[in-house]
Amino acid sequence: MEEKAPAESATAPVDLDKINSGVRFLNHPDVQSTPLSERLAFLEKKGLSRAEINAAVEKLHQASATQTISASQSSSASPWSLLYPVLGTTAILGFLWRFLLYDSNAENEHIQKGPAPLTQEAGNTLIQTMQQQTTEISKLVQTLHQGNRERHDRNVSQDEHDRVIAELRAEISSLQQKVKDLGGNTTVVAKAEEPRLPEDKGIDFEAVAQKMLDALELVEKDNTPEVIKTAATILLMYTKNLIEHPDVPRYRRIATGNANFKQKIEPLKHYEQLLSSIGFEKAGMNMEWKWHSAPAFNSYMDILKAAVYAFECTVSNSDASKSLVENARTKLSGPKEVTPAGTEEKETLVAPNLESFLTKLKNKSESPNAEAQKNEPKYPQSFGDVIKMVQNGEEVPGIKTIEDKVSTDADKCLEEPPTSQEVKKPWQQA
């Protein structure tokens, strides 16, 4: 039996799959630390024959030898494989370095040679053109400045001219009135009250006055007394300044967007007709008095004064029995001067010469308090003048010096020591 077993094992068929699986098992990394005898015994337990185990061992040795040869070959070839990239990189860097040196040398040569004549000529032409344009622009700017200055001077001179003309007109009207009062032969006769004749014949005085009276009648008819009185207060504020200073432009305008106008005049029915009857016309956002430049200025002023008198009577309730129309008509038909009772004579005045006229005009224009006004101290016009007077040690008029002392009864208060009553705390109160 023992002699036949080896023969049988030698002649037994070999399974290649088992041999390959044995090689994989022996070559597996997890069993490399296990002794070879134990691994072979494990293969026998798995059913591999001795021939299959020997074939697997031989095949494992052949595979190990092949791996060793390939590893030695790869180790011998690795230095060259590392050297080739280094050599290629060195060659490329050398080529680039020479190219960079060539470019820098060419640029230095170009800089040393300087700009081409054509470029230099073009630059000079451009500089000359820019200088010419700059000179022209400066001339234009100077011309514009000069034109603006001339326009401003012209406006200032025009304003000054208008102001002088307005002052001359006011002076001429005042001189005319004073000449009428001082010169000429006048006859004063006592008569009953009769309507005054208008000074200016260029307008239909009666028609304009009747238009104002009709407007007052409509206002009084369609409005309550409270509304009329409220509106009359604001209208007086507008027209009072206008009568006193008709040459001032801002007194001739009424701002319709003003709060007082909207709250107190617009609720008054027929207010536009009333304002137009006394000379106000619509001008943009304002209403402007257009009679200041009319030839019949005095007649228009009489109509305006009659309306103002009616407003004053309404506000003051001086004559409640009369209406607005009656008060205005009373002002328009005011009485003339009357001589004392029982005397009817003519007063003949000799026309004075120029010197006497100027003397009377000067004496009449001087106020009674002229002496007192001359004796009054001259007050400083600004805070800077006050500072200068204080620095110079001068006494500033109108400033009172307050003594630095306590009141007269301060001694009594200081003699009595202050007494304070101790306040009981809540928990101390019984």
TrEMBL record:
Signal peptide: none annotated. The keyword Protein transport applies. Residues 17-57 form the Peroxisome membrane anchor protein Pex14p N-terminal domain. One of its GO terms (biological process) is protein import into peroxisome matrix, docking. The keyword Glycosyltransferase does not apply. InterPro entries: KPWE_PEX14_dom, PEX14, Pex14_N, PUB-like_dom_sf, PUB_domain, WH-like_DNA-bd_sf. GO terms for molecular function: signaling receptor binding. It holds the Pfam family Pex14_N. SUPFAM superfamilies: PUG domain-like (SSF143503). It comes from the Eukaryota. Its main location: membrane. Residues 379-429 form the Peroxisomal membrane protein PEX14-like KPWE domain. Keywords: Coiled coil, Membrane, Peroxisome, Protein transport, Translocation, Transport. One of its GO terms (cellular component) is peroxisomal importomer complex. Residues 403-415 have a biased composition (Basic and acidic residues). Residues 158-185 form a coiled coil. Residues 226-285 form the PUB domain. It is found in: Peroxisome membrane. Component of the PEX13-PEX14 docking complex, a translocon channel that specifically mediates the import of peroxisomal cargo proteins bound to PEX5 receptor. The PEX13-PEX14 docking complex forms a large import pore which can be opened to a diameter of about 9 nm. Mechanistically, PEX5 receptor along with cargo proteins associates with the PEX14 subunit of the PEX13-PEX14 docking complex in the cytosol, leading to the insertion of the receptor into the organelle membrane with the concomitant translocation of the cargo into the peroxisome matrix. Belongs to the peroxin-14 family. This is Peroxisomal membrane protein PEX14.
